[in-house]
């Protein structure tokens, strides 16, 4: 059933779940006629967006992200918040575009009327998935959700992509001490604003607390004593819903700090500009790979570079020179 722009806008602003779901499907679509309508919709919704707390949640598979988001989201809705859960997982085939996958992953939240759980778009490339998620944030905020949790798989570039679309970045980790700390990628520690050692329950509770203290010390060294914000390291149990209130408090503190220093506005503006250039780069790359002249020229040039007959610099220049030209024999 085709839906017109006004129906989309009104339905989203009224918080109608079926329309919100269709609006997100629209912004995820790569079909040209959908893209045009999606941009019109986003233009209408943009003035109604921007008021939510945007939080990234990351951690390696097995750390307990689903359990955490289910418990954390439930805590937030009990405090009166409306919570949207989005995900960036370009490798995701687990949901196949249906919401069922996440319904079973987040049992309580999926049936909570104050929450909306949306699985990662299965668009394929990270650029495509990130674009759809960024635009879905606009839809969810316009629909009145005031906490947006963006989940990411703890591998590859997805974390950086998510860090670039949220205000605060929460890293979930497991009890590790000493040498095991090396196992946490430094890059992801640099993105983290709050860290929580999960599964601090039963026999693991003491280990988790000790690991949190050790990691906190490492972070103080990393950030220096004059840092405006040193990421706090907490411990929690998603399974038993303990320590989650402190995680929320610290995320709130981080957001208040950003807000009071004017950095939240600056950060979001920078993210918009960053997003623009990311899309320009993705689009250019897409055109490059689809260009007939480039496609016929590239294998020849690659071969000549392999044979040492042509420098990579000259080959790159020729590839770029071929873009958009109908000449195919430029080797
Ligand atoms: N003891 C304990 N186990 C937990 C806790 N949180 C999650 N788990 C368990 O850890 C396993 C992985 O949990 P998931 O929530 O599926 O974690 P995940 O692999 O990061 O999640 P996805 O990537 O979303 O699939 C499950 O067996 C959970 O029951 C916790 O706080 N304590």
Strand content: 5-15%
* Coarse morphology: globular
Oligomer: single chain
Number of DSSP-assigned strands: 7
Can you give a write-up of this model?
- This protein starts with a helix and ends in a 9-residue tail after the last helix.
- The chain is 54% helix and 10% strand.
- It is built from 14 helices and seven strands.
- β5 (168-173), α9 and β6 (194-197) form a beta-alpha-beta unit.
- It has 331 residues and is α/β, with parallel strands linked by helices.
- It has helices at 5-13, 17-28, 32-45, 65-78, 100-105, 107-110, 126-142, 158-163, 186-191, 205-223, 244-260, 263-290, 292-306, 312-322, and strands at 53-58, 83-88, 115-117, 147-152, 168-173, 194-197, 233-235.
- The longest helix is centred in the last third of the chain and has 28 residues, at 263-290.
- The protein is globular.
- A seven-stranded parallel beta sheet has the order 3-2-4-1-5-6-7, sandwiched between helices.
- α1 packs across α3 and α2 (17-28) runs antiparallel to α7 (126-142).
- Guanosine-5'-triphosphate binds at residues 59, 61-67, 105, 198-199, 201, 237-239.
- InterPro entries: GTPase_ArgK, P-loop_NTPase.
- Belongs to the SIMIBI class G3E GTPase family. ArgK/MeaB subfamily.
- This is Methylmalonyl Co-A mutase-associated GTPase MeaB.
- Pfam families: MeaB.
